[in-house]
User: Fold this.
Amino acid sequence: MMKRKTLQAILIVSIVLSFFGFISLISVATYQSKYWSSGNAVVDLADKIIDSTVIVNIDTVDEKDKQEAARSGVLGHGTGFFIKVTDTHAWVLTNHHVIENYIKLGSELLKIQIKPAGRPWAYDAELIGIDKVTDLAVLKIAKKDNENWTALKWGDTWEDAIEYGQAVLTVGHGLGQFWSVSRGVITGKDRITNAPFNFMIQHDAMINQGHSGGPLVNNNGEVIGVNTLLLSPGKSWSGVSLAVVGWQAQRSIEQIMEKGFVTYPEYDFTIDLVTLEEAQKQDEFNKGDVKKRSYIKIVDVPEDSESWKSGIRPNDIILKVGTNRAHHVVMWLENILNSSEDEVITITLLRDFEKEITVLYKLNRLDIDGLTPKIVPLPSK
Assistant:
């Protein structure tokens, strides 16, 4: 009898341990899906991304001009990837700086060519449009051999959809080493360059000159960024890679596909960070609720400006745009970016730490030199 009870106890304990072991395996699998993968999964993912990644070449129209053009530094290559594919055509996303010389010098001297994986020949590309702010360009090529290309899908990059330490993979043609694969993790979020409204993901997957315009993908093979630049004391990679965040790239693509260029809204006042004293005064107004703090304030409002006429004043603390919180610089800029020029927005402000007010403010169109570029058509055959 004692032995039977002992066996039953052992069996129960085994079942319980097996159950919790199963739960642990589920937890590990969930963790793996976002932060790391097995070797075979990475191999399969790399093959998939390579098939949808292309070389973007700038070459001379006339072969006799190639030597001089090469000496002048106007030739070169970058990376791109398919964002839309139909029965007859494919659209490729790359960086503006990859094809910038083509825009400057024109189609009489230079041409853009696309070389997909698995095809030994090049495809002449048409420039659909550019966005200088995000450094993006959209190209279009015609199919000619029953190509079975696949456009990459976009992943969610809003708010907390991307996280520090999240696994990423990239494909590109750095230093002339075509279809090079590198792997890393996200090392920074909400990086903002000197260009207005340019949000970047920082990661440590290796990129070099030639990777520009290539996809940064998550473990599901979804694009979350477009590799654009690296920060380094020299010309080679030093561990800091930057990619345009996916949601902003999609905003640019949508406008480029529609009209060939991208517009941005603008506000006519200056913002800055609040002081510790100003943050604590907000706490008093909010009865000790520090979660309601906003860390941005308005510091300069030109008289007779649209903002002055709207009732905005210096030292107002910005709380919301519409119903969305805007309590730090990145959230404020994201809210403005996702509005349109000439749109009237509602801004909620804290004035004198005594009362909340709302104002209606009309945005302007940001004046960016060359924002509406001259699109150079393909030369007639």
The helical segments are 2-35, 39-51, 66-72, 100-105, 246-259, 276-285, 306-310, 329-337. The longest strand covers residues 180-192.
